[in-house]
Amino acid sequence: MGTICVTGTASGIGAATKAKLVAQGHRVIGVDLRDADVCGDLSKPADRQRIVDEVIALCGGVLDGLVPCAGVSTPVPNELIVRVNYFGTLAIVNGLRPALEKGTNSAVVMISSNSTTMTPGLSVDDAMAYLQQDEESVVARFSSPAAFVAYPAGKLAIAFWVRMNAAEWMKSGIRINAVAPGVIDTGMTRPLLDMPGVKDSLDMIPIPRGRWGQPEEIANAIGFLGSQEASYVVGQILFVDGGTDALLQPTAHPHPLPGGSKS
Ligand code: NAD
Questions:
Q1: Is 130 a catalytic residue?
Q2: CA 24, CA 97: separation in Å to the nearest integer?
Q3: Distances (CA, A) of 191 to 187, 206, 211, 215, 240
Q4: What is the model's pTM?
Q5: Residue 73 is assigned to a structural domain of this protein
Q6: Does any domain span residue 143?
Q7: Helix or strand holding residue 12 (H, E)
Q8: CATH number at residue 96
């Protein structure tokens, strides 16, 4: 049994992941705005460093796993989406790397999204901006409320980051992978049903499974990727979306063929 840091433990997928890991006998160090072992705001650079310091103090500098789950989406301002979902997440992941290097069979499971493959107009350039530019430039890029791609571009950047860094992190003994959830019934999505027009858009998403997912179904996939059951799985993005991605792009297997495009 190990010590695993999970962010976003106060609600939804993070709460379900914490419950699953605790039930398996792991020690979980939870991070969230409130109701957590370490409370702080991942949108704020000063808080990010304090969160990292407090987690390292609590785990004695040794972590066996990390699930950076905290995130926000519409209708919060794009600035918050950029700061929390990508830059806050990466600050925690990079800040806790030294502790993960000292852990046993360490694994990081990041949270992407199936919006990365089903958002019309989302470009690879939007995602690469996250990877190549500083935080303030990315905030500025998506400053218009109409820049609806801020969220899926950040999640695509997370997926790219996983694939671009998996080999190098593996040299330190750390496996990194991600899940890409579809629409999951959480505190993030439920309020959207009351927003004019948004429920109709959500209802238009084709889900072969016939329903939204439950946070426990994502926690199960996170638990697998983080466990030794997945000891040979490295740098993968596991879509857990009731079949939407497969339905919409059946020939992407799972990445574009050479010369193809998937954005
Ligand atoms: P949720 O709102 O239920 O939980 C998110 C948690 O993150 C909350 O406890 C919240 O307090 C915390 N959080 C938000 N901003 C924070 C900040 N600045 N600092 C610290 N903590 C903060 O949402 P969820 O659906 O469980 O989402 C979890 C992750 O899954 C997110 O990264 C989200 O983007 C991703 N995701 C969700 C869905 C979905 O349909 N629910 C789909 C794809 C991906």
A1: no
A2: 23
A3: 7, 20, 17, 16, 22
A4: 0.96
A5: yes
A6: yes
A7: helix 12-23
A8: 3.40.50.720
